[in-house]
Design goal:
mainly alpha; globular
């Protein structure tokens, strides 16, 4: 549980939700991940995980 919490904190700390929401991301997944990685100076895999987390978060808001 603590590991999950630490990972979640790291994702939000390095790539804040409010800043991620302001980016103009393409629908092409790899390109969107590359934009996030470059903008926030994080590794590709980390950016990929953050994007997935953010998309799940948005889906929960829209689909309840």
């Amino acid at each position: 549980m603590q590991e999950w919490q630490a990972n979640s904190f790291a994702l939000h700390f390095c790539i804040p939700t409010f800043m991620l929401g302001k980016l103009e991301l393409t629908d092409h997944r790899q390109a969107a991940i590359a934009i996030i990685a470059q903008t926030f100076d994080v590794e590709y895999g980390f950016a990929e995980e953050r994007l997935e987390h953010w998309l799940r978060q948005r889906a929960m808001v829209y689909y309840g």
